[in-house]
Amino acid sequence: MQLKILSTNSLPKSIAFLINYALNNISNVENMLKVISGI
């Protein structure tokens, strides 16, 4: 699924997808750190 999105010629969509993916990863890491640190 992700590879199909990245392999398309629509560059703006690919960039937006990567940005959303990165933001989701950052949010997940922050949530994990909160759980680990007990906040």
UniProtKB/TrEMBL annotation:
This is Uncharacterized protein.
